[in-house]
User: Fold these one by one.
Assistant:
Number 1:
Amino acid sequence: MTIATKCPVLVTGGAGYIGSHAVLALRDADWPVAVIDDLSTGFAFAVPEEVPFYRGDIADGVLLDQIFTEQGIGHGVGAIMHFAGSVVVPESVENPLRYYDNNTARSRALIEAAVHAGVPHFIFSSTAATYGVPDVEKVAEDTPQQPINPYGWSKLMTERMLADASAAHGFNYGALRYFNVAGADPDGRTGQSTAGATHLIKVACEAAMGKRESVAIFGTDYDTRDGTGVRDYIHVSDLADAHVRTLEALVEQPDRSLTMNCGYGRGFSVREVLDSIDRITGAGIVRREEQRRAGDPARLIADSSRLQETLDWTPRFADLDTIVRHALEWERRLANLREEA
Ligand SMILES: NC(=O)c1ccc[n+]([C@@H]2O[C@H](COP(=O)([O-])OP(=O)(O)OC[C@H]3O[C@@H](n4cnc5c(N)ncnc54)[C@H](O)[C@@H]3O)[C@@H](O)[C@H]2O)c1
């Protein structure tokens, strides 16, 4: 694809963990980029200085009109990558209406603004949480979607809105269902910065750095190879690259929308993840064995063949120790950034 065919891309949530990696991947591939983010959980330092940054809400129609006008190079914003949202599953159980507001209602407002502005391509961050607790070895895109929490429902409803709006209004979209996202930019430009994160690799890196006393293992009696839960961890930079390639596919085939699982198709147990961190740091993280949490499946592994077959996507970091090493490097860098601030 030539630079001439690369339209400006608006990245919502571009100051957050995954969105900031997508911004880098788009820039590395010469796509013009702008970011909208309200900084509710994101960080301004995660957005490169040269990238136009609009601090505000994805449901703010006036701001969106301004962006669509200002970023108008020839035919205007050509694509939206929509990462902005609320992402903590237990919080969605405690405060479901907040999740239906931020993830569903505000996505509806964003999609409406995109339709009015005639934006032809839309890529949405969906999640494996839309599948609920699937009783299969590997989860394919046609595995029934039966969420078990408001977070999963809030995302599934947005997938539905996109499918219906796309059919009615003639844009195409990518719905990417991420499994467990982990790691950080290999060049140390961004990473996961959220305090109080709940993701295992992030939490374990914090423990290895002495920021937490121990790491809980929720459930040791699952029917898995070592009794702990197995998950499909995908490196965030491989995921960002999958977004860029999805965008290329949407531009090249404007009549086709794509729904794809994003994972590597193999899983690691909680103990294997902690072993990896111990191996790399020599730290010996303190492990606390706890009861299973309600709603945690024994294993959640993507059948990622559609992603591999549809896109020209070759993962570069599909190795647990590499993911962990990059996450650890970012955790150290983050500690320095916070000391300097
Ligand atoms: N992290 C994962 O493992 C994972 C897995 C599946 C799906 N996802 C999805 O990926 C997306 C990004 O997740 P993340 O882990 O980077 O989270 P994050 O919290 O780091 O990023 C979300 C960003 O969106 C911004 N934001 C939130 N609500 C906003 C609003 N109304 N208007 C403008 N900006 C807003 C936040 O400030 C933040 O910068 C989310 O939609 C999430 O549901 C993440």
Note: The longest helix spans residues 96-117.
Number 2:
Amino acid sequence: MIENTIKKMIIIGAGGHGKVVADIAKKNQYEVIGFIDDNENKKKNGKYDVIGTIKDIDMYLNSDDDKYSNLYFFVAIGNNQMREEISKLLMKKGIIQPTLIHPSAVIDDSVSIGEGTVVMANVVINADTNVGSACIINTSSSVDHDCIIEDYVHISPGVHIAGTVKVGKRTWIGIGTSIINNISLNEYVIIGAGSSVIKDIDDKGIYFGIPAKKNYG
Ligand SMILES: CC(C)(COP(=O)(O)OP(=O)(O)OC[C@H]1O[C@@H](n2cnc3c(N)ncnc32)[C@H](O)[C@@H]1OP(=O)(O)O)[C@@H](O)C(=O)NCCC(=O)NCCS
């Protein structure tokens, strides 16, 4: 019997972000079987079927059907806390999550990227930067040299991060933001769209504007 070596993928999170992840998975030679989502009303996500909920993971994992052999899962949920929760659930089950990198991304050899992280189209990541697990490095963003991007961070489209910046766990950088070099951002920070960060951010919370300031509203 010829072994079925095609890599299959079920994507968790049937939303717009999931559709983009599906495209990147395909470009990395995965056959996308479908999505699972805890919203049972979702039957389709674009051209893909929604084939179950989180509780069905074990059923697919343990299936004898060749259709589900060589199966991988990927968490494609934009919300950082939810992505962390489900990523940890997969880890508990011993499921290794791949790292997905769009072929157009330019990444230096010295960069390390954790499992379950997606790097989208036209991203640039420069020398000696470390990107953690289950992060989203979204379309056309850049992360320069010597940065530390901790686990469960989302860097939105068009964000530019200069050299030697640290972004703490679960922090979300809004679309089009710029961050100058030698800056450190705490965990659980949200930076609003189009901001410019020019100082360390030590407290959790929402910040936006040019320069970015804490929103006390
Ligand atoms: C920062 C953010 C999270 C705040 O959301 P929110 O708490 O719902 O805030 P609101 O929309 O209620 O806005 C509150 C006030 O802040 C202002 N504000 C919100 N975001 C702002 C931003 N990025 N820059 C400047 N002002 C902003 C609003 O104009 C509003 O001002 P007002 O009270 O004078 O009318 C959101 O506005 C944002 O920028 N999200 C990023 C979205 C993004 O990057 N998406 C990419 C997905 S891939």
Note: The chain has two domains: 7-92, 100-211.
